[in-house]
Design the sequence.
């Protein structure tokens, strides 16, 4: 997405869902079943004769082969045939965007999983695709919500997905583009559709553990899959015995709040015990989640039975502490090596390279400030905060709070030079030790769309602090960005002192400044 979109908007509920469904676990209507469903009894009765000028009159044929990938290619920009009505799959009633159809013969017999993707080098990344899957080319599916595949993930605008069909049947992929593709995107173009099918098999689950580690979920499961294609763990979080946590922020806690996390290195194994650790969006790490239903899914989205477990949130350990990553966990930035929490080289190198910000010691009752320009790099980083997802690259600074205070330490990116870049800002007393984080802020004023960050450490202890600045983890790209950081030391005044009512130049230790004078301390 454009840099402005990236920096000014938080993901919507539907985009959260797209990010969560990285395995494409959606299904289709008619005789196409969503993952976990039973096959419908037969194909709907429809007129097989398509109008001569319809895209359905000249589909691209693709014959599936069991347990093998196949592909078809085309270019919607070259299509001169009339498009079919996609219903609500695109902008309501919009049929102006060119389409092409692939008629895919499902291999084998019985219930079969089908996985398809346009995310490949045959489909330009700029092509904002939409795919509708049908059991009859001329018939608009009744279940539009489960037959329409738009963005493959939060940042990927090409389409992919999974569904189940009966071996021997023909299914139709209607390939088109988004009528409003956005900056740098197109609605028509070349494409390559890759399809893989295999006999469906349902995974099983034997045990599960879910642990919150800062903003990450650490999930361990054991189970099996006779098809040897288990690929992920599905988690449905609860905030009490019966209430589902509203992961996608749609105002309703329901089955749509299940989140899928990929399980690496399981494909090819019929029985396994594996773990996955992944940054958890949707505030799953907020402390409200107390339990979860956990299941294993395969590459087609077929699901095991669910088991319910309590969600653990242990105290995390810093450098040189003992660990086993089962009960005693290191903080996320650290590694557990030979049962000791160690600082990775990338973390120590970043700390060594931190830029020192020189700031004058306040003289009397007047605040001192220093402003530092910086460029947030593109890509991912190695530090983790506690207040929000922070997978982006970081820039580190050190600042000294002098003796002789007390002083408040303030820092902000909410400056004119930062513009609308969505930042995260946090402070530690030890750069290499995440357990020393003092404060963290994502958005200074989200209610008023201020997505820059501000932190305040009141009466900060004298010593060195590391300030970490980065792009919000789900800020689309992230792109490099030039911003500013302002750091201030604000004197904290005792009762009777002259003070600033606005608390900009100074602050009273024992209450709000009133008529220019600090109040007496409240009696205890």
Sequence:
């Amino acid at each position: 997405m454009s840099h402005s979109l990236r920096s000014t908007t938080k993901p919507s509920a539907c985009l959260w869902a797209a990010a969560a469904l990285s395995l494409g676990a959606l299904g289709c209507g008619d005789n196409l079943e969503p993952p976990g469903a039973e096959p419908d009894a037969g194909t709907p009765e429809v007129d097989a004769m398509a109008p001569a000028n319809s895209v359905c009159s000249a589909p691209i044929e693709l014959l599936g082969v069991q347990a093998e990938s196949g592909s078809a290619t085309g270019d919607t920009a070259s299509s001169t045939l009339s498009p079919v009505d996609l219903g609500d799959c695109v902008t309501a009633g919009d049929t102006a965007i060119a389409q092409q159809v692939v008629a895919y013969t499902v291999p084998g017999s019985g219930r079969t999983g089908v996985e398809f993707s346009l995310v490949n080098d045959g489909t330009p990344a700029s092509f904002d695709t939409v795919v509708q899957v049908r059991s009859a080319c001329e018939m608009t599916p009744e279940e539009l919500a489960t037959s329409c595949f738009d963005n493959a993930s939060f940042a990927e605008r090409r389409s992919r997905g999974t569904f189940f069909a009966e071996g021997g049947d023909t299914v139709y992929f209607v390939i088109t583009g988004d009528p409003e593709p956005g900056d740098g995107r197109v609605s028509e173009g070349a494409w390559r559709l890759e399809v893989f099918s295999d006999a469906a098999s349902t995974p099983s689950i034997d045990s599960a553990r879910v642990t919150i580690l800062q903003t990450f979920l650490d999930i361990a499961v054991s189970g099996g899959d006779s098809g040897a294609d288990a690929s992920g763990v599905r988690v449905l979080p609860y905030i009490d015995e019966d209430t589902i946590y509203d992961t996608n922020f749609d105002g309703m806690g329901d089955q749509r709040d299940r989140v899928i996390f990929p399980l690496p290195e399981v494909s090819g194994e019929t029985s396994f015990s594996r773990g996955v650790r992944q940054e958890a969006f949707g505030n799953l790490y907020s402390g409200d989640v107390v339990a979860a239903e956990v299941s294993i899914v395969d590459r087609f989205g077929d699901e095991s039975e669910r088991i319910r477990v309590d969600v653990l949130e242990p105290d995390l350990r810093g450098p040189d502490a003992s660990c086993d990553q089962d009960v005693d966990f290191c903080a996320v930035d650290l590694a557990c090596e030979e049962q000791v929490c160690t600082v990775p080289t990338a973390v120590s190198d970043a700390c060594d390279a931190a830029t020192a910000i020189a700031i004058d010691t306040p003289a009397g009752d007047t605040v001192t400030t220093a402003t530092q320009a910086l460029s947030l790099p593109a890509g991912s980083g190695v530090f983790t905060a506690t207040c929000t997802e922070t997978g982006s690259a970081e820039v580190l600074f050190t600042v000294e709070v002098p003796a002789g205070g007390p002083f408040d330490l303030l820092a902000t990116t909410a400056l004119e030079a930062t513009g609308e870049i969505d930042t995260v800002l946090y402070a530690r007393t030890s750069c290499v030790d995440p357990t020393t984080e003092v404060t963290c802020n994502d958005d200074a004023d989200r209610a008023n769309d201020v997505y820059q960050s501000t932190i305040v450490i009141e009466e900060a202890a004298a010593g060195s602090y590391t300030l970490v600045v980065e792009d919000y983890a789900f800020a689309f790209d992230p792109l490099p960005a030039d911003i500013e950081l302002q750091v201030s030391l604000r004197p904290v005044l005792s009762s009777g002192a002259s003070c600033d009512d606005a608390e900009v130049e100074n602050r009273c230790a024992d209450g709000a400044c009133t008529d220019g004078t600090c109040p007496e301390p409240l009696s205890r």
About this structure: The longest strand covers residues 481-493. Confidence is low (pLDDT under 50) at residues 1-48.
